[in-house]
Amino acid sequence: MECKRCGNESVKNGKGKTGIQRYFCKECKRYWQNGYLYKACNQETDHYIVTLCKESCGIRSIARILKISITTVIKRLRQIARNIQRPFPILQGKEYEVDEVRTYIGNKQRLYWIVYALRRDTKDVIDFKVGKRNLKTLGRVIDTVILSEAKRVFTDGYELYKSLVPTDQHCKKKYSINHIERKNLSIRTHLKRLSRKTICFSRSKELLEACLKIYFWHKREGLSLVYNH
């Protein structure tokens, strides 16, 4: 029997508590089995969690659909996000749009902002930060754009941008950030925690950043949700 992780030969190693045959791989020193009664142990579970997260399902909704615990969903989202890197390089001489999306963390009295930069020609998000709507949060995203020697940086009329973006690169004309405004709508549609007039919001900044990282940079094509009853 081939190991599911490394492809090398595995040997039988007794049976688990559920009666399913277990195997041991001598190469990667791991135990595994062909099937699991608890769905969270299946290899495709992480991909299902990502798909549902990006399709406007909250933590509890994902747990109900996949029939796994809420704690498992939160733990997996954090693990997946930690392993995600920006999937494309930041090129020089490009045009970018920068904007903010309002949200809450913990309760409706704790207002936070998601600041991110969008590359105009590819619509890729090159960087984002979560924090207060101040110079520190805006500056961390703007610095990424400026260091890439951006040809042009488009923003709205928020006053703080004047002190962060060089005048010769800054543009705040009417309708100049249409692309990122449309992206804002997509984010609010696809991430339930960011929907307007909802009881859903993030419990922690770490989990919000994990969901955004997955939404912006995780790529998984051709996955369908199929369950055996």
Name some characteristics of this structure.
229 residues; alpha/beta; Arc Repressor Mutant, subunit A; Nucleotidyltransferase, domain 5; 5-stranded mixed β-sheet; 3-stranded antiparallel β-sheet; 7 helices; 8 strands; elongated; disordered C terminus
Structure in words:
It contains seven helices and eight strands, in the order E-E-E-H-H-H-E-E-E-H-E-H-E-H-H. With 229 residues, it is an alpha/beta fold. The protein folds into three domains: 2-33, no CATH class; 39-83, Arc Repressor Mutant, subunit A (Orthogonal Bundle), CATH 1.10.10; 95-203, Nucleotidyltransferase, domain 5. Strand 2 and strand 3 form a beta hairpin. Helix 3 crosses helix 7. The radius of gyration is 22 Å and the shape is elongated. The two termini are 27 Å apart. Residues 220-229 have low confidence and may be disordered.
Over the alpha carbons, how many angstroms does the gyration radius reach?
22 Å
Structural class, judged by helices and strands? alpha/beta
Counted beta strands: 8
Question: Strand percentage, roughly?
Answer: 15-25%
3D shape: elongated
Classify the helix fraction into a percent range.
Answer: 25-40%
Largest beta sheet: strand ordering:
6-5-4-7-8
The whole-number mean of residue pLDDT values reads 87
The CATH topology of the largest domain corresponds to Nucleotidyltransferase, domain 5
Uncertain regions spanning at least 5 consecutive residues: 220-229
SS element count, helices: 7
Termini separation:
27 Å
CATH architecture of the largest domain: 2-Layer Sandwich
CATH class group of the largest domain: Alpha Beta
